[in-house]
C-alpha cells in the first residue's frame, strides 16, 4: 500500500462514480452473459456484471490491461463492494438515513458534471437515449445508497486524526524506489460572468409563452402544445410532465408557482434560471406533487460577451488594488455556482483535489497561466461553457510547483491526507470485524480465492 500516495484501499467512491453507473447502464445489453448474483448481504446483492465492469473501468482509468497480474485487484474491488453493502445493511438496522433533498442536490450535481463532460444535457440524453428525468429516476437509489454508505463511514472515522509524528512515520515507510514523482501542479481560482441575453430576447420568450397560455385558455390541450413547443428535452415528449417531486427538489421559482396551483390549474408565466415556464398542476399526493410545464428559453444567438468582460475588468481592478480579496469577489460576483462559495477554487477532475497537474489543465486556461506568476490575476478571457454558454472569466494563479519526487517539505498536506486515509481504512476494517457477523453474508464459491470475509489480511 506504499507504492503511491494517492491510492488507498477504499475503492467505494470509484466503483460507484456516476460515470461508471451511466456507462454500465448504457452497455447492459452486452453484459447479459456475465449476469448472476455473486454476493448477498442481507437484502443487497452484487452481480457478476457489476464486478466485471467495475474491474474493467478501473483498469481503463488507470491505463492498464486485464491480466493475471491484475486479477488480485478484482478481489479487492469485490471486497470493497461487499463492505459497502455491509455499511448499507447496518445503516438500515441502525436507521441511518440521508435527507431526500440532499440526495436530489447530489444527484443533480453529478448529472450536471457528467453533462458538462459530453457537451450539455441534450447530448447526454442523446447518448443514453433517455431523458434526464429517466436517468434521475434510475440513479436516485444508487446515489442515495452511496450517500448513506459515506455517512456511515464518516460516523465511523469522524474522530480519527493523525499527528505529525504519524505522518513522518507513514512517509518513512515508503521505499525510496517507490516514492511517487509529482509533475508540475497548480492551484487556480476563477471568477465567471455569463454573457446575458438582452431584455428584448427575454421579452420575446415571455410573449411566446403568453400566446401559448391564451391558446390553452381558449381550449387547446396543454400537453399537446408542450410536445410541440417546449424546449425542455427531458419532458417535452411526455407532454411536459415532470413526474412527482417533493418540496425543495425543484428550483424555488418553479416550486413556489406550482404549489399555489390546484390540480388542473395553470400558472402565469414565471422565470427561473432555465428560462420561462408555463406550469400546470396535475396531481398532489401527500408531500409530493406532479406538474407539467412548457419551457421557452430566450434566444442566445446574439448574446454579447462585452458586458461580462467590462464587469470583470472592474472586479479585477478592485482585486489588484487590494480593495477586495479574490475569494470575496468570487462569492459576490461570480456566476459559477459550483465555485463561488469556495473562493472560486477549481478542482482536479481525477482526484477532487485543488492541486491540478498541468496536463489536466484545459488548454484555454493553460495558455493564460503559462506566463503568469503566483498571485497574478489574469485579464478577462472569453470561453464557452460545456453546455454552450458564452462567458468570460478572470483567473488567479495561487500556487505552482516544479516537478519533483515526493518529500515532506513540499508535499506534507498530500502525505498527511494519505496517512489519514490509511488510518481511517484501519478504523473501518475494525468496524467490519466487529459487525460482520451481525448481517447475513453469502459469497459465490467461485470467489472463495478472494477471501472476502477474511479481514485479517
From TrEMBL:
Keywords: Isomerase, Rotamase, Signal
Any GO MF annotation of the entry: peptidyl-prolyl cis-trans isomerase activity
Pfam families reported in the protein's UniProt record: Rotamase, SurA_N_3
Record-annotated PpiC domain positions: 183-283, 286-381
Transmembrane segment boundaries: none
Stated name of the protein: Periplasmic chaperone for outer membrane proteins SurA
Signal peptide: 1-26
